[in-house]
Amino acid sequence: MMHYSRWHVAREFDRLASTYARYHTEKSEREGRDFTDWFGLRPRESVLDAACGPGTLARIMARRGARSFALDISPRMLELARRHDRLRQAPLTVGDVESLPYAGDTFDVVTCTYAFANLRHPVSILREFARVIRPGGRIAIIDVVAPANPKRRSRLNQVEGRRSQLDTHILSHGQFLRLFEAAGLIVLRSARHLRRQSVREWLERSPARIKQPARIREVLPQLVDGARAEPRSGRRTSGYFVSYTIQWFVLRKRT
């Protein structure tokens, strides 16, 4: 597997920033509101949204009275985040989740959404999250999870690899649990949700930005065959949907 430099990762997500912002619509807002209710965000808590993208969750948490910090490797993502009133004066930082530029015991909550498939050293990153939360603090994560069956999981990751120019490895629920254990974290709560996304959106939000019809036709049979994706209606690409599983976690440090 090829490992890309941090500069390369930042460049790819700079390129994707406008597309991400376009798709972070009411659906993302609704998920963010539900998630903050679910993990129990309290007013005046100090919160870091790590790998924040265009700042959707950070903005929701600020709106609910939290002191929101946000960090992303992509300067362009942070430019988009700062366009929103709630984040215009917020501490937004260009940085890497592998080496957070904050002192220990700084935050009540660290959130991270839809990032672990592209993170090369997840245990080290989870330890960084644990380092910067205060005693009694929480780590709240949303991410896609792969099937437990190794063959199906491998197939899914092969398909994901076809649409990405970055290292991509979607983890199973069990793999996440093993990472948490290795990082010295305990799961307080978890919840599973089934989602679906149009193939057009799935392709446009990929780091490869597959738009050529030939590449779309090449990927679709793999989706239907082994990646838990099915055509729902119609024959055009826009009529197909990818089915996937989302897992929510709330974690704390082991005492």
Write structural notes for this entry.
This protein has 255 residues and is α/β, with parallel strands linked by helices. It has a single domain, classed as Rossmann fold (3-Layer(aba) Sandwich), CATH 3.40.50.150. The chain contains nine helices and eight strands. The protein has helices at 6-23, 26-39, 56-63, 75-81, 122-132, 150-162, 173-182, 199-204, 213-226; strands at residues 46-50, 67-72, 92-94, 107-113, 133-145, 185-198, 229-231, 240-253. Strands 1, 2, 3, 4, 5, 6, 7 and 8 form an eight-stranded mixed β-sheet that branches. The longest helix is centred in the N-terminal third of the chain and has 18 residues, at 6-23.
Protein traits:
alpha/beta; 255 residues
The SSE order reads HHEHEHEEHEHHEHHEE
Measured by DSSP, the beta-strand proportion falls in 25-35%
Instruction: Tell me the radius of gyration.
Output: 18 Å
Strand tally is 8
Structural class of the secondary structure composition?
Answer: alpha/beta
Largest sheet: 8 strands, mixed
Envelope shape: globular
CA-to-CA gap between the ends? 36 Å
The CATH topology comes to Rossmann fold
Number of helices: 9
The level-1 CATH class: Alpha Beta
Q: Care to give the gist of this entry?
A:
The chain is α/β, with parallel strands linked by helices and 255 residues long.
What topology emerges from the helices and strands here?
Elements: H1 6-23, H2 26-39, E1 46-50, H3 56-63, E2 67-72, H4 75-81, E3 92-94, E4 107-113, H5 122-132, E5 133-145, H6 150-162, H7 173-182, E6 185-198, H8 199-204, H9 213-226, E7 229-231, E8 240-253
Parallel strand pairs: 1-2, 1-4, 2-3, 4-5
Antiparallel strand pairs: 5-8, 6-8, 7-8
Helix pairs in contact: 1-4, 2-3, 6-9
